[in-house]
Fold:
Amino acid sequence: MEKKAKEYSKNPANLKQLMDDKQAADNQVASLNQKVTQLQNNMSNKDARIAELEDQLTQSRGELTTAKAELAQLKENPPVHAMDFSKGIVFKVQIGAFKNKDLSKYFDNNPNFGGEAAEDGTQRLTIGIFRDYWEADTFKKYMREMGVKDAWIVPFKDGQRVDIKDVLEGVVAEKPAEGTN
Structure:
């Protein structure tokens, strides 16, 4: 070290160059340390963002699992909407069965008017669609008062005509008190 000191004392330009080089190196180290700190901060921010996104992903996966389960449940047991008469039990009032009268063109765009063809060519005509048996019964009585003497109630389950005894058991017990309808 003494040897270097003597060398620099004899050549002050070399000493100045050494000091300038040291200052430049110190400045570069400080700049690099600042960049390292900035990069570490960026990494910390990105790590925090990754953790936040992972939490959101976990939550979204949970919501997706729940939604899939609800969808499977709805597919298994679709809700019966008040206006969707293709599922569940409904009651229609049959007003007659006729041969040689084809009214089928009126069935498609009139949901409360319907009919079905019997095997013998008879066309059974119905009017009204009710979820409640007693409401259908009241309507049947009005039809009879209006002169449709052969009006009676026919039940359908999931769009298929069924015997009244197959669906009436649970309905008869629910008859409303007289004077409430």
